[in-house]
Amino acid sequence: GVIIENKPGAGGNIGADLVFRAPPDGMTVLASPPGPIAINHNLYQKLSFDPTRWVPVTILATVPNALVINPKLPVKSLGEFIAYAKANPKKVTVATQGDGSTSHLTAAMFMQLTGTELTVIPYKGTAPALIDLIGGNVDVFFDNISSSATYHQAGKVRILAVADEQRSQILPQVPTFAEQQWP
């Protein structure tokens, strides 16, 4: 049998540390987002594990991120959102999955590339960030399209752009960033 243990926290470092400390007998496997494997060694001064010592087995999935907003924001496109954010510096709030998460880094890169200043609100994962976005407590969230698509279709959030080379098969009506002249 297989036993699955979710060990969230510290950007995935808690679970990764447990895997690192497990006997190297092939019985313990880490299924992880990019944080513990590719990002955290650049964000944390000291990790209790060395991700370069692990052997990758497979890529389970690739899921594009999307710019997801609360539908009460008075914008309908990426260009309108950028103009709105520039006209309201630090007033537009962006949820993240936590400090150093992919959504946090995406938000930072977005602000740098667009010259916008958003107020970053870190959460403990996707679920609470998405709940507060739907509830109107935050304005925007860079989320993977699969967790936001159903809420977009129900009108509870609005997805303005998908970060992929092609439109998503899940939401083909949503344009990519590149289609809207943004990297």
Automatic annotation (TrEMBL):
Belongs to the UPF0065 (bug) family. The lineage of its organism: Bacteria, Pseudomonadati, Pseudomonadota, Betaproteobacteria, Burkholderiales. CDD domains: PBP2_Bug_TTT. It comes from the Bacteria. This is Extracytoplasmic binding receptor. The keyword Transcription does not apply. Keywords: Receptor. Gene3D superfamilies: Bordetella uptake gene, domain 1, Periplasmic binding protein-like II.
